[in-house]
Write a structure and sequence with these properties.
3-stranded antiparallel beta sheet; Arc Repressor Mutant, subunit A; globular; 106 residues; alpha+beta
Length: 106
Amino acid sequence: MSNIKTIQQQAEIFKALSNPHRLALFSRLMNCCVPGTKCNADDAVKFFVGELGEGLNIAPSTLSHHLKELNRAGLVSMERRGKNIECWLEPATLNELAEFFSNHSQ
């Protein structure tokens, strides 16, 4: 991750994840692939915004704000599908986070 993203970009990622609601949304989206395997955008689990917020006790307007922050940090991709917006984790960023932690745990 350090080779691909600047320290400022890394800080933005961790800032986005420092909010409990955003971390809960990110955790729900992390089911995009089996741990230890490569994940790509075609295989990523996608949720509509309403589905993603179910059971998290986040107001719809707040949910939208948190998803925009995760998107701005490069953690989540979003695409409009008719009246709905579909969300999924950005696999490249997830792989960069895994690399970041594996490089810093030695």
